[in-house]
Design goal:
The structure holds two protein chains of two kinds. Chain A is of the alpha/beta class. Chain A contains 23 helices and 14 strands. Chain A has a five-stranded mixed sheet with strand order 2-1-3-4-5, with helices on both faces. In chain A, strands 11-10-14-12-13 form a five-stranded mixed sheet. Chain A has a four-stranded parallel sheet with strand order 8-7-6-9, with helices on both faces. The relative contact order of chain A is 0.09. Chain B is an alpha+beta fold. Classes of the chains: A alpha/beta, B alpha+beta.
Chain lengths: 603, 182
């Protein structure tokens, strides 16, 4: 395929897509790992069966990937010709029947079940911010940009998730896919691409937050060949599922970003490393690579540019630690995925000892759009040092557990109270929120005005990292949470370096004692000291991040008070820790007993 | 090359050699055999439920990778098992949200009912329980439990009890979602 052919195909498919939505009634069931667990396959099968048996000729049932509205899975879009594309939540087969009767065959849009409406064209939204579109309410159904969940969202990285069928390359081309690649390969030289990425000031989205442009420049400048470019899609930690959603929802954008990365590094070798916990992500990504190869987006002389490239999709094999960049490279090499001491950095000696660029899935996903619109466009969003947008994942007792994408810089209360909708049960307000899943601390309610920004988070021993936020209410105990995180890191430590292997074990044991009512006041100093030691001397980012929740607990007054209550009074506010060895256990908690009662009792 | 058609797995059962060779054949075309090691072990694990020592030796011979390296890899990653532990496995999601909102109770329940804690096996080799130290990505349906590759959502101790009883009684026709499809 040369450039002209690509442009023709692209225009033709775009036209087809438009006609499709304007002439057919389209039912789109969202299918991804999470919604399948909620029963989306049954919904899809039901629609297919009913549409066939009712002989609805003008109705098409198809699949798209999820938008991220997880609290309402299974979700379905229904679009009638010339009408808005309405999103419905909790569409079980029973509700699917009602929707067919009332809306598809009737004329009642069932506004009560809808979550909002969204255009079928992602570019309908200026800068991908849903709230920017001048949309109006339609028969009682608000546009997505006016809903609580949608008003803050700006979906650059996940721009095609929920719009396209992830198993169809034609659909991806129809919404404007591969145009970034076209521009990079045919209109720009490698240095221009790097300059554009640098201008966007985008930082790595895997956790460390290192500048993507700088990384690309370093690999580009290395003289040794062969070089490699790797997409790190191994996310093994709990409460984090953005990479898999991108693989499942928009695998072609990942691929497009990767090919651009390979072009910049001047190498024909690209790798995509997918976690084995996500079989659907692996399947869809593998399919995407095959189909792209068939159409000539991979292979020799891509789009007539003279540049050739091929990509391998490699499956991981579990083990959280092998998501660390240097460990991941050992994983691809068929070895034990253990991190190594740096330097040398990956760009000097990465895969097979050769210069390698390693970036997160989300970073790669942003690149095509950055090239199309320019780095300056991207750097206009976000805060001073953290540019652009970030996918966040909300889990735990939120009203809305979901995946969303918001610009950096806003207060975290926006994410908690607007995107997440506050607590699931108003009787149990969200008193703290955990950041970065198992590698960061928490923010108490009094600090919800902290801006959503990589560096600000770092000051409080919190890690923005993957963008995961987990809610704590009065039913969760912070000490228990700390124990959980330490235990997790102990279990997942590869054991290569001693501070992490033994330090995490020691910290876990101390917290176990505290949970059981055996804590001593002298433990505080020991915990603090041991945490420092692990942070200073571990060789990889995961070991260095393991004790962050402990340091965070020592730093924030409210959390420290809770820890002291456990140690001094044997009192667990949330009544989660067993405290079975503590003398005050006999008081019995839960019946209005507070820490003050316990202190009183001890006197 | 081994000339047998069946090899002893060491655990009392036997493994069809043709099937294993068929899996290894798929990776014959990979130019770098080390890169093929983990995908190949994934297939073996999926097919047999573990990576028996004779199969590891076969892979080592055909890919020209030292046996200790194959063993090293298959013991490092959580996906691979080198011994067949038990007939059935309960995989408890211990992602953060699940841990805080229910899976501790489930772990406690399994301890009471079957007498096993994380990674332990019952005396009759029938059950084992493991923690899923990752995220199923379905936090809306917490807590999530996988029993023998079928995923169940919003599981209570009572429901888990039913599931265990059903498997014990040999019933497998209940509604479920296959974990290899998500």
């Amino acid at each position: 395929m040369n450039r002209q052919e690509f442009q023709e195909i692209s225009a033709r498919l775009a036209e087809q897509r438009k006609t499709f939505y304007n002439t057919k009634t389209v039912i789109e069931v969202m299918l991804d790992g999470g919604s399948i667990i909620s029963g989306a396959r049954d919904t899809l099968a039901y629609f297919q069966k009913e549409v066939e048996s009712r002989k609805l000729d003008n109705v098409v049932v198809r699949m798209v990937a999820s938008l991220g509205a997880m609290w309402a899975e299974p979700t379905v879009f229904i679009t009638k010709p010339g009408q808005p594309r309405v999103l419905y939540g909790e569409v079980t087969p029973a509700r699917a029947k009602d929707l067919l009767d009332k809306f598809v065959q009737g004329d009642d849009p069932c506004a009560d079940w809808s979550l909002g409406w969204l255009s079928s064209d992602p570019y309908h939204y200026h800068d991908f911010a849903w709230a920017q579109a001048p949309d109006e309410e339609w028969r009682g159904i608000p546009p997505m940009g006016r809903t609580e969940w949608g008003k803050l969202q700006q979906r650059i990285s996940s721009r095609f998730c929920g719009y396209v069928d992830p198993e169809s390359i034609e659909d991806f081309i129809a919404v404007g896919g591969f145009k970034g690649l076209e521009k990079a390969l045919l209109d720009m030289n490698t240095q221009q691409v790097i300059d554009e990425v640098k201008a966007s000031q985008i930082r790595g989205r895997g956790g460390a937050g290192f500048s993507v442009g700088t990384k690309w420049q370093s690999t580009h400048d290395e003289k040794r060949t062969p070089k490699y470019v790797v997409v790190n899609g191994h996310e093994g930690e709990p409460s984090v599922y953005k990479d898999r959603r991108l693989f499942e929802g928009d695998p072609y954008s990942v691929l497009e970003g990767l090919i651009i990365g390979c072009y910049v590094a001047g190498t024909p070798h690209g790798y995509i490393y997918v976690g084995s916990e996500h079989p659907l992500a692996f399947k869809r990504m593998g399919q995407a690579v095959e189909r792209a190869r068939k159409l000539g987006f991979l292979g020799d002389n891509i789009l007539g540019s003279g540049y050739s490239c091929d990509v391998k999709v490699i499956i991981a094999a579990g083990a959280y630690i092998s998501g660390e960049a240097s460990a991941m490279l050992f994983g691809i090499q068929g070895g034990r995925g253990m991190p190594r001491v740096k330097p040398p950095r990956s760009y000097e000696a990465g895969l097979w000892g050769q210069p390698t660029t390693v970036n997160n899935v989300e970073s790669f996903n942003n690149i095509p759009e950055i090239l199309l619109r320019g780095g300056a466009w991207y750097s206009a969003f976000g805060s001073e040092k953290s540019k652009g947008t970030k996918i966040i994942m909300l889990s735990g007792p939120f009203k809305r557990q979901c995946l969303a994408e918001v610009p950096f810089g806003g207060p975290i209360s926006d994410a908690i109270n607007i995107v997440g909708g506050g607590p699931a049960d108003p009787a149990h307000p969200i008193r703290a929120v955990q950041t970065g899943a198992v590698s960061g601390g928490s923010f108490p309610a009094s600090m919800y005005d902290i801006p959503f920004d990589i560096d600000t988070f770092g000051k409080y021993f919190c890690l923005l990292g993957s963008g995961s936020l987990t809610a704590y209410t009065d039913e969760q105990c912070l000490v228990d949470a700390c124990y959980y995180i330490l235990r997790y890191n102990r279990d997942e430590s590869c054991g290569k370096c001693i501070p992490c292997r033994i330090g995490c074990e020691g910290l876990t044991e101390m917290f176990w004692r505290i949970k059981n009512g055996d804590g001593k006041e002298s433990d505080i100093a020991k915990i603090d000291q041991l945490s420092d030691l692990v942070i200073e001397h571990s060789i990889c980012g995961l070991g260095q991040a393991a004790p962050l929740p402990v340091k965070n607990m020592m730093m924030i007054e409210e959390f420290k008070k809770e820890l002291m209550e456990h140690i001094q009074a044997g009192f667990c506010r949330a009544n989660v820790c067993s405290m079975k060895h503590h003398p005050t256990k006999q008081l019995g908690y839960g019946s209005g007993v507070t820490a003050d009662h316990v202190y009183e009792f001890q006197k | 090359m081994l000339s047998l058609t069946v090899i002893n797995s060491g655990g009392g059962g036997s493994i069809e050699l043709a099937k294993i060779n068929g899996i290894i054949d798929k990776y014959e075309s990979w130019d770098i055999k080390l890169e093929a090691l983990i995908p190949c072990l994934q297939d073996i694990q999926h097919e047999l439920g573990y990576v028996p020592a004779p199969v590891a030796a076969l892979i080592s011979e055909r890919f020209h990778i030292p046996l200790p390296s194959v063993y090293g890899v298959s013991t490092f990653y959580t996906d691979f098992k080198v011994v067949k532990k038990s007939e059935h496995r309960i995989l408890l999601c211990e992602g953060m949200a699940c841990y805080f909102c229910g899976s501790q109770k489930l772990a406690q329940f399994v301890k009471e009912k079957l007498g096993i804690e994380n990674m332990e096996v019952t005396a009759d080799k029938k059950w084992t329980i493991e923690r899923a130290n990752w995220c199923f990505g379905a936090c809306q349906d917490m807590p999530v439990v996988e029993v023998d590759h079928s995923i169940y959502t919003k599981v209570t101790p009572e429901r888990l009890n039913e599931l265990i009883e059903e498997v014990n009684a040999g019933k497998t026709d209940h509604e479920h979602h296959d974990s290899s499809e998500m």
